[in-house]
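Researcher: Last one for today. Full complex below.
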Amino acid sequence: MRTILIAAAACALAAPTAAELPPGWVGKDTCATCHEETAATFLAGPHGRAMAERGCRVDHTVVDGELVDRSCESCHGPGEAHAAEPSLENIRALKSGAREASTGCASCHAAQDAGVLTRTPGHQRAGVACLECHGSGHAPPAGRPLLARARAEVCTPCHGSQVAQSLLPYAHRDGRTPFECMRCHSVHGGTTVKGRIEEDGRALCLSCHSEKAGPFVYTHPPRDAAGCVTCHRPHGSPHAKLLSRAEPMLLCLECHTNTPAFHDLSKPKYRPCQTCHAAVHGSQRDATLFRE
Amino acid sequence: MTRTRLSVGLLLLVSASVATAQTGSEVVVGFAWLSTEGSRDSFASQFKLDDGIYLERLHLDFGGRAGSGFDCAEFTASGFGAEPSSHASLEMDWDRTWSIRLEYSRRESAFHLVGFDLGGRRDDWTVTRWAASLSYDNWKPARLRLDLRDVRRSGTTGVPFYGLGEPYVAEFDLNERVQEVGLSLETRSLPVKILIGQDLARYVRDSRGRPGNGGQPAGGADPDELVDYTTPGKSESDVPTTRLAAVYESERFQLAATGLYRRDRLDTIHDDRESYDLSGGAVGGVTFVDRLVGGADVEQRLGHIRLGFAPAKGLTLRVRGRWEESTQDGSAVGERLLRVAGNGGSFEISDPIDDQTAFERTDEEAAAEVEWQRGPVALTVDYHEGSREVAYRRETESPPEAVARDLSGWGATASVAFSRALSFDAGVRTGNFEKYVFRTEPESVRRTWGRLRARASDRLEFTAYASREAADNPADVADLDRSVDGTGISVVYSTDGGAFVVAGFDALSIDSRTELRFFAPGRAIDTSRYSSRLMVPYVRFAAPIGAGFKISGGALRVGDDGESSPFVSQQADLRVEVDGPFDLDWAVFANYWKYDQDGATADDFTVARYGVAIGRRF
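Model: Here's the assembly. Have a good evening.
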């Protein structure tokens, strides 16, 4: 398998340059004159193969062979000066400033960079660059798409607190594996959330928990006004149902100051509120939320 | 039987995949044994893992090569059998024109805990989801996309309830379904990129109830038997949603506006009854009947606008506005009956239901932000203001309630990224609120955080973070006082050969205090206190040792020393993989879980899961 890929890469390296290069660019063949092994490894990897074998769908535009020829300089910048006088000073090395390295990625992956003036996600504010999470393609990736770490661990270094919660006894998980963060979070920001214009975080929860979607004739206002996180901890909880209290009764009593006098809370009968008020997410037939 | 069918299906699937797959494909099948000490129900409530055959990984790559006819054609699957979550997806692109995505997932969920205060509730259900999308990408003006979705929830839930003064159990056979179709168009040749989407979803719920626990009270030893619990009702709602987004981008100016309009229409009908035989029927019976027709109209409108302007290199100004409105009008008409039958005759009491309910919410928010960046340093400062108005009427006889809540706040962040070797970011965010929709809402919120990322070399990486969030409100509201503190460090050492070690430690402290007020007697509590002190040390590693031999694993301990619900949970796993003859990869693995609640043993467990996996790449 490896032999085939290296051979394919060698063929790609030997292929004539089809497209005209921008001023100051020299093309991958010139780069490979000195960096032969590096170029071959890159082209044999998923980033190179995406450019060479399948073309590349970037922002809904199919880019063919010329992208292969531009592959080195797409990330490292125009190489004419570097080819004339090899030096780290006249080429964009990816070990340089993280933001500078990101500009190379954005030259192709415009969709992930679009709207940077209007959106303000935390990653943009914190200066998190593409290569913090993604690999460059010179080494085998740990996950798709070209991730520097396994998908489950991409977010761990910076968001340890949330990841630690996903390891609590009750959490969103597939068997023993916590959900990947990207199931809910849109890491690149943008105009839409996962391709859809979502109205709030509650809608994100209800896209899976559709049985709680309602509408209900008799609503429970905290659910409709403030959302699921009023009572639940979405990243994980020590308590069942991802509740934010060890005793669910306390969740109710913190809001409900109008508990009727016959609720004698010293008796176990009255302590699990849900035994009577079972329809905590809303009811179709009962204003006191006794039954769903 | 289901398990057998799954296993046979799994084997057929794997056999077929081996026969038809192309280079780049992979299949791994495992068999696991489970050894449990303690509560198997509690383990199932957390992990729902079983023993038996399962599909660890299947990846078939048919496309992207000469003669395949596809730009991309991949099938992936995992789960099934002994795993609680199953997933399969098929992705196909061809002619650089069409894209098809088919997804199937199935998730089993169980809940049965003895020591948790939900009154003996029991869940055992499955959600099955199908999703499909078809995209057409070869029309220059726009990209078209069709989405289909089908979600079904089936299984049973056991819901405890009080009837005749004793806790009984109602079992529900779940039958819930969501079907959705969506069509969207995304322009690409216009100066302004426009995205238009129209979805139509239909929700149907007609779960059926019946007496649980054989009609006997959960506590037993009561002569009154629940002999009938029927819920022949049905709820249906149609939800059309229209989405619109417009984006304009130039080098220095960007504008994005989004809008959404959704209108739900709910129709529900109930003829529910619960009947009891008093003293086993010797003295008669009691029947409660809820007979009603209900409905609700919900309208939701949303508008977001974001504007960005870069007047100079490194300087960006941003303004954003958000407006959301949701209104709901509900109604229920019918009667609530009590029928009592005894040896001396029978009588019936009827209570008419004629309710009008309402709920309205309007959120508004506007914010402005300045970002300044020069070289490795970036600073942002923002200010925001907003409001929330909630109006609510629970039933016809309830007085309408309306509250408006205002908010304002600011935030600032700084990030320094000298190189990939060292970067740091920190920030602060505050919010101040006036008036309260709910008494548990804060008057002020403050959040601060900082993160450090450092690379000592290409192989050694170090990260650390700390954050603190605090919220409170005045004593005359609820005397709320909440804080969340998080700290953590991690160290990663990796080699070019794929070996790595990750070790770290996370600590999370959550404290909450809320004063309770109620008229009920038995005031054993007057303050809701919650205290959690989580400590999570962990280590993970993988080490290829020579050709065709790899060992990987990890361990972590989650301990909560807080006062509310202290516990210790431990997990460990080890996997050894060996390349065998006939291009087969063999693996043996073992997993270990231990859950130990402080002061209670009913839900504790110790579980070992071990097994073998066999895989082949082709």
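Chain B touches chain A through 165 residues (CB under 8 Å). The longest helix of chain B spans residues 2-20.
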